[in-house]
Amino acid sequence: MTGRSLGVALILWPFASALLLGLHRAGRALHTRLTRRRPDVTFRYTDPDGHRLEAAPGHVAESTAVALTSWNAHGDTIRVDIPLDRLEELVAGLRDTARQAAGGAP
Predict the structure, then answer these.
(1) Any bridge partners for residue 52, and if so which?
(2) Are the CB atoms for 44 and 68 separated by under 8 Å?
(3) Which of 42, 47, 80, 96 would bridge with 56, disulfide CB 3.0–4.6 Å?
(4) Count of domains in the chain?
């Protein structure tokens, strides 16, 4: 390497290293965005017989919903997606059913 080539390399090195560092940071940021998991907002319940119920985010006809999935002890599943605008109706129905099961007035 001649003296002139070495001089050019020494002048360009800070720019090249800054460019490489910037590309590295941009790549890491993109990787983080692509692989970042959303927080687990799933509710899980298992009864004494091993039947499970899970509530998680879902979709109905391109709108947000709550997905209820039920498993029996044999692993058979049923999934129901409840639109958010019907969720309060579901909760009220569950409360009414619980009152009836407890022997209270509907």
Answers:
(1) 46, 71
(2) no
(3) 42
(4) 2
